[in-house]
Please model this.
Amino acid sequence: MLLSIQHRTVYRYPQPVRLSRHRIRLHPRSSPALRVHRFNLTLEPGARVYWMRDLHGNPVAVASFDEPAGALSIIASMELDLVPVNPFDFLLEPHAAFFPFPYTDFESRALAPFMAAGNPEECARVLPWLAREFPDFSGPTMQILTRLNRRLKERLRYVRREEQGVQAPDVTVDKGSGSCRDYARLMIEICRQAGLAARFVSGYFHDPAVARQSPSAASPESMHAWCEIYLPGAGWKGFDPTHGLLATETCIPCAVSIDPWEASPIQGSYSRRGGPVPSSMEVSLHLQPADRS
Amino acid sequence: MLSRIADSLYWMSRYVERAENTARLLVSRLPLKTGGGGPDTRGTLGFWEPVLERYGGLSLYYSLYPEPDRTSPVAFLVSDADNPDSIRSSIGRAHENALLARSRISNDLWKTINDMWQTISAVHTPGQTDGISANPAKMIIKASLLFQALTDSTLPHDEGYSFIQAGKLLERASQTSRLLEIGITTPSPTSTTEAADNSRWRALLHSCNAFEAFHKSFPGDPSPARIVEFLLSSASFPRSIRFSLAGLEEHLENLIRWTNPPAAGQALEVTATLLSEIRSPSLREVPPSETSPFLASLNEKLARLNNTIIQTSIFREDHDPDEKSAQEQQQQ
Amino acid sequence: MFHDYSTDGFYDEMFIDSGQPRPHYRRLFEFFRNLDRQAFEQKRSAIGQTFTRQGITFNLYGDPDGTERIFPFDLFPRIIPGGEWNSLTRGLEQRITALNCFLEDVYSRQRILKEGVIPAPYVLGARHFRRECMDVPVARDIRIHVCGTDLIRDAHGTYRVLEDNARCPSGISYMLENRKALERAFPGLFREMGVRPVSDCATELLRVLHHIDPRRSGNPTAALLTPGVYNNAHFEHTFLARQMGIEVVEGCDLVVRDDILYMRTTRGLRRIDVLYRRINDDFLDPEVFRRDSRLGVPGLVRACRAGNLSLANSIGTGVADDKVLYAFVPAMIRFYLGEDPLLSNVQTYLASRGADRSHILENLRHLVVKSANEAGGYGMLMGPVATRREIEEWRRRIKADPRNFIAQPPVTFSRHPTWTGSACEGRHIDFRPFILNGAAITIPAGGLTRVALERDSLVVNSSQGGGSKDTWVLPDGS
Model:
């Protein structure tokens, strides 16, 4: 399936501000099932841009601005070729077929940063929540994890949160609600505390079917977030707790990271002599199947 | 017994014996030099060179002492930490091994070795050496004798004891052979008088602590041929090569009885062959000045015997059979 | 001897106030008062010589010479009355039972985390938590077999636990050697006062090792794993092994084949069932932990997982003496045993808790800050005596990694008369009894009393200029 995406972000400032170097993570992580045919990045004001692969292999555009500006607009437009995938088409290594399982020593070493439990002050009620929901959290690995994924969708109420940042897992548990990034963060913390390596994913979501059923769940107006769990034999496997589904070609990853903030689609700062000024942000996102030609 | 401990006991004992022999060599040569020569540096060096060659090596010596004086050979042999064959180095390694085997040796034995180490490491470093003093060497000889006595009287005579004895006896055999080599090859100091030549052979006997024993065995016949024969194949003198190897044979037999190594007998076989060579009457026909090739080959065989003992009796082949598994991997 | 002795207002073990000995010290007081200076000096030097000759020495980490020093020993024994000892031991038993339950729990069901008694990240993120050992059963469900618990007495004479050493506590040999030396010096006093013996400690330890035989053969082979002769506790390793009649092995002596641990001996490979290991988790098995370790042996953890080997202490016990989790020990006692703690902790602030953190940062000058995972008095800020630069340095460190720091108000340790070389003066002491956990919990009647030899110093660690005393426990009703 060919998909064209247009992602437009505009920041406005009451007075001209000096823009720091910005990191832009809007380019999909290509793979055999996801090919990027075309990708254009347009910045206003003009900037010098170079591309790099960051720590996690994410393609990142680094933009440097010379002149102060009253607004910053970032437009990414692209055309992708998506191959439908069966998310269950893999074979777990025998040692990982049943949860709990220990990673091999080689895996543990590489995965250590993705397994570290969070801040005790913000993640104290995660394991108690899990124990309530799953008094016995063990069994065939995929079965356990898909159940957990579904359970998050069932138990949490989706809300669009405009405020910056991600909710602490304890807050999500207490409030029983959050946005997709909060779902992902909670799921990641659960996995890490249970001894699984998990990472945060930011990207685009496009599924006409789901969008028809519950338009609020995945607003096409912003980017999506989910998580990946490392399963020996399957590799990094995407779980989308907001929808309670395994990630398929409908989840288009742009950046993965240990902590959510590292995967922000756009990251940068601005400053102005004479003190801070507020800013406003406007995002629009259009995803559209394109004709094969 | 842990193989590592057996190894430490064996080497502890070898190094104490080595230190004692180095010390004896030194003590036996000091009066020679002070009696015979003047302050002539070249003479001194000619006299010491065969010794230095076998205890550390001449090239090392000249690199450490580019401008040698009368005292530098002594410093090189006694207290030089850079010379691996100096008394200090030998005692250092004996001490280290004793520390590793601390749980298997008696307190008294440990203390003796500790004292040896304290004494020798307190000896002045080269530049400051206070002339040619034989005192540290004499102390080491005494302490080594105490070490032997304590080994006999404070340790159980079990496999550990046999490893200690094996180390000592093998070292003794190779040291006596080394001393013989030196005795044979040392040129007479500047004056080639008969007196000087006599004193050289006397020193050889002294360096093996054999002076009295020899004269009792061969009263009135101090010919070089007799001396060589005595040190090589006396059946009763405890420092002769033959006597040492016979003792070694006995302890290797004990070890086989106790530990039954899979390669039992390898070391024993080598020892027996060496013994029969030394006992062979034809050896007596060889004139002393031509014994060198035999001694050189003997030394080589003793070194091989050492390896055999370590590989078959201490660390056994069945500890780590070759575990080779092939892995396929594509290289870039 | 005690003429000019002053308690200086501290809680003194021996004197109620200057000149007035506590009842259980009265006999000792009279004995030393009647001992003339010459006899006293004789006994002191005799003991000193015994120690040197036997090489009861330790190496110092961070000492470039690696030279050996004699563990300084003070002649005046510390005395604990029978009743006081009995209540102490009850408290220690309770504590080790709870700690053992805690370890058993966090490495399997994690009830205490799931019920929210301890926020899970404190445990799961602890440096010494070993995820690799999840669901690996240990023989007889015992994980801490030897524990050395450091106790102090505060200004009111109340015993408080300063820390639990549940990894590789050392000091048993010093306790036994100190006792031997004093028994030789004062044979009469021991009989007369009925001092309880500590001598069967090594036998008890061996019994514990036999109890955790994974094969239950009744005749297991045990060995002691040492990092080697240059370790500062090597004397203790050989001492204990000799007392127990087991081998002292190093990593290079060991080999794992088919998940069974063997030692290389002159008689071939010999199977080891129980390893009393005196090296830390990190170095045990390069397959699992630090790959650069030459101290352990590859495959050791596999042997444990396969149930062919018991380790004392088990892998992962370090999480029990994490200084952050220390603060939760009272909660553990309530949770697992349903009892109130018999021994008190020292009040502890966790830098990772918001409210505690601001209290710590505002009061650095008045607190002792410790990093969570350092032992032996390293990694500690003594607020009241620190320089401004140190304070700022620690402020930065705490902010950067709050999880790794705790703070406590400075507790004044009790003092005990101690010989300074020319006079008898009060010096601060702590106390480390040893708890052996096998078929039953046994606590040898005594322990290591450590003394800060420098006046007003609170640092009692042997590695930092502390010394030790013999500890006498009197019979019941004394």
Notes: Residues 72 and 278 of chain C are 23 Å apart (CA to CA). The longest strand of chain C covers residues 424-432.
